[in-house]
Amino acid sequence: MHKLAINGGEKVRTSLFPAYKVIGEEEIAAVKHVLESGVLSRFLGTWHEDFYGGPQVRALEAEWAEYFEVKHAIAVNSATSGLYCAMGATGVGPGDEVIVSPYTMTASAAAVLVYNAVPVFADIEEDCFCLEPHSVEQRITPYTRAVIVVDIFGQPYDADRINAIAQKHNLLVIEDAAQAPGARYKGKWAGTLGDIGVFSLNYHKHIHSGEGGIVVTDNNELAERVRLIRNHAEAVVENKGYNNLINMLGFNYRMTEVEAAIAREQLKKLKGLLKQRRENVIYLEEQISRIPCLQMPAVRDSCQHSYYVHALKFKSDMVDINRELFINAVKAELMPVELRESEGVNVGCGYVKPLYLQPLYQQQVLYGDKGCPFNCPHYEGTINYRQGLCPVCEKMHYEELITHELIRPPMSKDDLNDVGKAFAKVWRSYSNEK
Question: What is residue 152's DSSP assignment?
């Protein structure tokens, strides 16, 4: 038996894994065209023909809407901005509650706070890690206005059940599909399953323009409100003749022409990049699925997963070490990814700390020193951010979940073999000690 690298033995791999480089000559040519045009942005924050942006932004929006078979696509400068626009478009405000996932990037819940409403955290599923429908329904109160679902790790949420709950209680559904472009649920694209969907074009997503996001919807009114919030709504509504002023304080959430040009070329590559990811997952799972302490990720019935990351579950009853020691030993056998060396080996325990355990929620301090929105005089509900609020989420984060990114293109079979060998080597070492 070979000595583990964490104990001074030789590593399984001694070279960096290949970088995830999806920018090519097509994007360079597109950027060159924009630079030569001299039009780097054409947004004006007044009611004018350029209120909706320049030719590249508008072309991206049209192409995105066509690709994802949705009526409206609105480009923004980040998915975070897109979530804020979407939340504002719903009319949510002080005294309202919005049900959110505790196991997601912080912006998914912060979008609620931006409008002085209160996030209410529901638990997640044991196997798919999205919001659990029964927990969602348990958290509904007379103050609930919307649900923000997250297609976490590239897995679409349980749209049939959660949408039915939302319809029953007259709630809007905002779908955070930042990690799931190209995923499907019963033939329909992730991001188009709720009332409003939000995609990300951040640099570490499937396709990217450095930063950027896209908001999609089939609802004309919601789409127009998103466009207004994106671009200085308060300065536009009078001349536009728009009368619903709720949440019509706008921002500069506008995408540049350079970003839009890059994103247009990236969209053309999405299908091929997803195909490679899915093939890599299948190949890697053929090797590591035989390791008894690892449980492969579940895929919801009638779904296509887009695998933003590969999410495994650690079965501690199968080996006499904890998850952290096991993963530290695996990481010691491998190397970082090129261009992201400072991050270390891209294999980790859990994902993010459950959001309600952040200081913001624990201390309930945000706007000034008056306690808003948690202790706002307009809020008549009761909030609970205690440890143990979402037991499945806490179990996944602190005990079971393993996430890694070593399935992205251009990972070759040789690269994937090294990942498999590292997991297998660590398993053999510790299982033999049992």
Answer: G
Spatial contact of 294 and 419, defined as CB atoms under 8 Å apart: no
Convert the pLDDT of each residue in 398-425 to its tens digit. 999 999 999 999 999 999 999 999 999 9
* Main-chain phi, psi angles of 318, to 5 degrees: -100, -5
Write out the two tokens for 206: 């499937």
Q: Average pLDDT in the 340-369 region? A: 95
Model pLDDT for residues 99-152, shown as the tens digit of each residue: 999 999 999 999 999 999 999 999 999 999 999 999 999 999 999 999 999 999
The arrangement of secondary structure in 25-265, i.e. its CATH architecture, is 3-Layer(aba) Sandwich (3.40)
CA 171 → CA 136, 156, 401, distances in Å?
Answer: 12, 19, 31
E strands, 29-77, in order: 72-76
Sign for the CA dihedral angle at 80, 82, 87, 91 comes to: positive
148 membership: H or E segment, kind and range: strand 144-150
pLDDT over threshold 80, residue 433: no
Any residues with CB less than 8 A from the CB of 144 and at least 6 apart, and which?
96, 97, 98, 99, 120, 169, 171
Cβ count near 269 (within 10 Å): 17
Virtual torsion, Cα 297, 300, 301, 305, nearest 10 deg: -80
pLDDT score of 407: 98
The two three-digit tokens of residue 197, written as one number: 């969907």
What are the distances in angstroms from CA 342 to CA 16, 26, 208, 345? 12, 29, 21, 9
CA dihedral over 128, 134, 139, 144, signed as positive or negative: positive
Looking at every residue in the chain, the average pLDDT score rounds to 97
Domain ranges of the chain: 25-265
Amino acid at 375: N
Q: pLDDT band for 1, please (50, 70, 90 cuts).
A: low
Gyration radius of the chain over CA positions: 23
The gap between the terminal CA atoms of the chain, to the nearest Å, is 15
- Name the 3-class secondary structure at 151: coil
